[in-house]
């Protein structure tokens, strides 16, 4: 029996242009099952969002500023002053969809020949009343890094960190590799070897951005070695020395 995670993989691989036979081999199902899992698109009624009345304003604003890119936070503040009450995520999704044609190269998948995987991890730097964590994303091929400091490891925070990492790198990889991140994977090998049960919120997010969720094999830290090495650098060569320096300064003061 095909499960939700397999259906999600079929849809994502189909979006990447993979053949039915290739998809069947990667997911471990028959070609007929792949055919049944590929969505049959129908016309849907358009959903009117709170952002709708401001779309023309935003479009004109972005076009008039081209080639200068206006940050989403600035645009959000402008329409907020005009009475907009929706969330900034809606605005970012809309702005991403109307980028000028001349800018399309910026949204092509990064590292065209090798842009297969981004590796993600949390670094827990401080616990207690004032927790501090670092979200770390590393491109597998180029070893380019994105890091963001946050005060919690909730799903909404993880998703927003992913979005900003995609913006920073200029695209979305084919797959994102995680360690045993509890907010991502709920149960390992639930439906068979290598077929895991993922957090539905992460599955929906992966579907929206068309990337596959992958997890490291247990006790195989080397699978995500590039992130692990950068994690040690952040903790031992950046955070710990900085904290020590600040504590010393307080003592002197």
TrEMBL record:
Domain of life (superkingdom): Bacteria
Pfam family, one: rve
Gene3D superfamilies, per the entry: Ribonuclease H-like superfamily/Ribonuclease H
GO molecular function, one term: nucleic acid binding
Stretches assigned to the Integrase catalytic domain: 96-253
Cited InterPro entries: Integrase_cat-core, RNaseH-like_sf, RNaseH_sf
SUPFAM superfamilies according to UniProt: Ribonuclease H-like (SSF53098)
Transmembrane annotation, as ranges: none
GO annotation, biological process: DNA integration
Keywords: Plasmid
PANTHER family assigned to the protein according to its UniProt record, in alphabetical order: TRANSPOSASE, TRANSPOSASE RV3428C-RELATED
Alphabetized NCBIfam families for the sequence: transpos_IS21
Protein's recorded name: Transposase
Organism: Rickettsia amblyommatis (strain GAT-30V) (Rickettsia amblyommii)
